[in-house]
Amino acid sequence: MPLRTSYLGHDLINPFVLASAPPTGNPGMIARAFDAGWAGAVIKTLTREPVRNLSNRFASNRIAHHVYGFENIELLSELSPEEWYTGIRLLKRGYPDRLVIGSIMGDASDRTQWIELALGCQDAGADLLELNFSCPHGYPEAGRGSAIGQRADLAAQIVAWLAEDGRVTLPLIPKLTATATDISHIGAAVAEAGAAGLTAINTIPSMMGFDLETLIPRPNVGGYSTYGGYSGPGIKPIALRCVGELVSSPGLSVMGCGGISNGKDAIEFMLMGAPVVQVCTAVMLNGYGVIDHWLAEVEAFMAHHGFASIADFVGLGHQRIRKHGELDRSYAVRAQIDPSHCHDCVLCMNACHDGGYSAIVVRDGHKVVDPDLCVGCSLCSQVCPTGAILMVAV
Fold first, then answer.
1. Residues annotated catalytic, as ranges
2. Would you state the pLDDT for residue 1?
3. Does 328-393 carry CATH code 2.30.180.10?
């Protein structure tokens, strides 16, 4: 089948895996996702510490009815490790062709805790092991989560504990945070310590905003709130950058995650070099059934370009990424307005006048571009709501 892919020696029926998050909150939910067509799932992160999640722990920002930003202050799994070990066994028995990935978090100074959780997932039959070095809320204040992922020494030490133990044989996949100063530096450290692959990225630390009637922050927990993890379409460009940097260095196979809202988004992560993508927020907002349309989008893309397999285009886009100083400074474009599509709004003129070079002028009742003033920055094209402004090479 053309949509099959592989990751660290495991074959997947398609490239779509559920991220460790509310949609993988218990084994029964994962089973329903597998029935819907998902190729794999990362279980909700295990910890030995009892977890009780807050009520009213989500918030969103919208344009009209469209959610473009989502925040959560949810913690790790409320199920015990033993409950998850039983669940992993049942999932692997019922769905032997699906990827079940364990996810664990321990104290940064407790080697025994990390190894015990890793062996529990391994003995239960998990295929891979994701290490949660990136949760941005709740745990960093206790020295875990992204507090680990921001420090190369801590992240590498934990990977080394597991890689050198001798009993842990599962491939180790640290899940990294975009809030590190240099994610490639963290990636290189965990690669040297024994990581087999990487996941990037987790949610990003955020503060969603305030209710301007009550002046209470969102999400409202008894009149108060806290900084949470930001997800949704808005973080996709950040996630793509992180995946690209990790593909360059250290070069381990990356599962792309962050802001994937449709099949076309997933394709962009594959073009950047990720053979597998993880999804959370889009499923929370729309359900497991989105997978059908997303698979159709990937198939249509492949047919359009004549790709016979996922592997044919993984990394093709990454080959076109250069350092800023390596880009061609002789390349030039100019804006061109198509009057048949122009609705005579003033967005382009305002943008060009106040944020550009005042190159759009009115002549004979029509907006035109003054070629002597236009430098080809493309601001006008970005704000045009009808697609009437094209950037033409000169």
1. 135
2. 61
3. no
